[in-house]
Specification:
mainly alpha
Length: 217
């Protein structure tokens, strides 16, 4: 019985890895779509979000099956409950990437955007997502805490990006205003993705230690 349970836990880890990979792909494609003005890449992000939504349902069913059909010990229970929390944040990451794609599609952006700091934000949050899921699978407490620390750098990039874009509007009055506001929104979506990756890392910490950051406040 325990062997079967361990195999199902392994399946849970594999599905979480795949869902995390889909989130990472969606983030990267959304940024690529913005940088190259690619409608097709933007549409691929929306399709990826649909797959992420389906994976959330599949993993939720597996977690409930593990809880109802097995008798998990405390450590297993933390691992399963953490997974349930993590997939909620991953689903929202897919939504945020899709929101970026929707901006590109709705505004019919056909030209690339010169946005080095947004590119840095995208790379940083994609790594946070990847590392947070890796920390869960490998039960790596140190890596989960590095993800939490990385959120400060993403927040700083967002503030710098926002200041630069607002200054650009002030210096270039005219038609650029709406496009710059869109870019600020894109940066905000990436900042939120960083927040969700941090949430995932906090649940990883809980799965390992039994202590969640919010419960310490």
């Amino acid at each position: 019985m325990r062997n079967k349970f361990d195999m199902q836990l392994e399946c849970l880890s594999e599905q979480l890895i795949h869902m995390g990979e889909l989130c990472e792909v969606a983030i990267n494609r959304a940024t690529t779509a913005l940088q190259h003005g690619s409608m097709e890449e933007a549409k691929e992000v929306i399709r990826a979000d649909e797959e992420i939504d389906q994976m959330e349902k599949d993993i939720e069913r597996l977690c409930l099956k593990l809880l109802l059909q097995q008798q998990p010990v405390a450590r297993d229970l933390r691992q399963i409950s953490a997974a349930l929390k993590m997939i909620t944040d991953m689903e929202r990451i897919g939504d945020q990437a899709s929101d970026i794609a929707e901006i590109i599609i709705s505004e019919k952006k056909s030209e690339g955007a010169e946005i080095p700091k947004i590119g840095k934000m995208s790379e940083a949050v994609a790594k946070m997502v990847r590392d947070s899921v890796t920390a869960y699978v490998k039960r790596d407490l140190e890596l989960s805490r590095k993800v939490m620390e990385a959120d400060d750098a993403v927040d700083q990039l967002f503030e710098e990006n926002k200041r630069d874009l607002i200054a650009f509007i002030a210096q270039n009055k005219g038609d650029a205003g709406r496009e710059i506001i869109d870019l600020i929104m894109v940066a905000k979506y990436l900042e939120r993705i960083g927040d969700h990756a941090t949430n995932i890392a906090e649940w990883v910490e809980f799965s390992i230690t039994g202590i969640h950051k919010e419960s310490q406040v």
